[in-house]
């Protein structure tokens, strides 16, 4: 973690030493590594904002202040819970205070310019029609997301046979759905997400966990640059580690195969369970004769009609 920083950050360093305001409300013992491995206890640090006024997420500094004043729900290192939204501000606050630079400056200097992806990756687009006119409109596959509402109950009641039950678990596990998100939240998201994230003020905001705007090429180059290390391991069907990557809630994904020095990204603007994405990943990997990450192999098992097969699993 020494990119563009005046000093090298240590994993064992207390975040409050870097970001003094962060040390309030029992957060003085949270270390850098607790933030990076999602054990800081701040997985719900922005929950009040998202419930009461989601548009406040477009205020970068206000969200940093909210994080600094938040109260952890668990002791540091006690429990690993996916910080699906707060993670971006936690890392951003640490890096800004350690470097003395603003988030966008660091993004451009550390990634955009070295990777030569100018005009292809933004977290907060600049004003002007030049970029706005090139952005895809976010939509949702409502049929797919409505099926998700029944997933939890079907898994709980085990109304599927063993093979279908295991396949469904593998599909759902791709998305890292936070434990705090309930079926009702998914239903609400289906109607609110497109409205919020298609709005111009949100697209111009810095929301590092949610509003990255990029081409598939830019995302693939980002993963390629990180091929020597990563944050979520990709495992083949035989259990061997082949790389790392991350699938977003909605079907977009990116990952790198470390052994084969290969990176790929698929970006979609129609949020779904990811059958289309999975088929693309399977096709490219099979053509190049490289291992398919286990989380995507489910779609190759379903064959070319993966979307239909997935619908059958969810509707049974």
TrEMBL record:
Residues 8-272 form the Beta-lactamase-related domain. Transmembrane segments: none annotated. InterPro entries: Beta-lactam-related, Beta-lactam/transpept-like, Beta-lactamase/esterase. It comes from the Eukaryota. PANTHER family: BETA-LACTAMASE-RELATED, BETA-LACTAMASE-RELATED DOMAIN-CONTAINING PROTEIN. This is Beta-lactamase domain-containing protein 2. The gene is lact-2.
């Amino acid at each position: 973690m020494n990119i563009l920083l005046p000093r090298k950050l240590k994993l064992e360093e207390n975040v409050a030493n870097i970001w003094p305001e962060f040390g309030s409300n029992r957060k003085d013992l949270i270390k850098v590594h607790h933030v990076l491995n999602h054990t800081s206890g701040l997985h719900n640090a922005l929950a009040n904002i998202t419930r009461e006024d989601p548009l406040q997420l477009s205020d970068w500094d206000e969200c940093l202040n909210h994080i600094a004043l938040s109260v952890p729900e668990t002791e540091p290192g006690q429990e690993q819970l996916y910080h699906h939204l707060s993670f971006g501000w936690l890392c951003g606050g640490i890096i800004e205070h350690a470097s003395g630079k603003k988030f966008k400056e660091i993004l451009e200097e550390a990634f955009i310019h070295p990777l030569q992806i100018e005009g292809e990756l933004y977290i907060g687009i600049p004003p002007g029609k030049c970029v706005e006119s090139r952005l895809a409109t976010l939509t949702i596959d409502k049929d797919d997301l409505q099926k998700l509402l029944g997933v939890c109950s079907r898994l709980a009641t085990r109304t599927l046979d063993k093979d279908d039950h295991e396949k469904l678990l593998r599909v759902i596990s791709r998305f890292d759905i936070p434990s705090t998100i309930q079926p009702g939240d998914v239903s609400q998201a289906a109607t609110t997400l497109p409205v919020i994230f298609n709005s111009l003020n949100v697209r111009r905001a810095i929301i590092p966990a949610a509003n990255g705007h990029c081409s598939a090429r830019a995302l693939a180059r980002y993963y390629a640059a990180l091929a020597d290390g990563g944050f979520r391991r990709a495992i083949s069907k035989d259990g061997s580690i082949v790389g790392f990557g991350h699938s977003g809630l909605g079907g977009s994904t990116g990952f790198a195969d470390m052994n084969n020095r290969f990176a790929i990204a698929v970006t979609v603007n129609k949020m779904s369970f990811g059958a289309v994405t999975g088929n693309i990943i399977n096709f490219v990997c099979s053509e190049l004769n490289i291992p398919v990450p286990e989380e995507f192999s489910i779609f190759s098992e379903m064959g070319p009609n993966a979307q239909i097969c997935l619908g059958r699993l969810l509707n049974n």
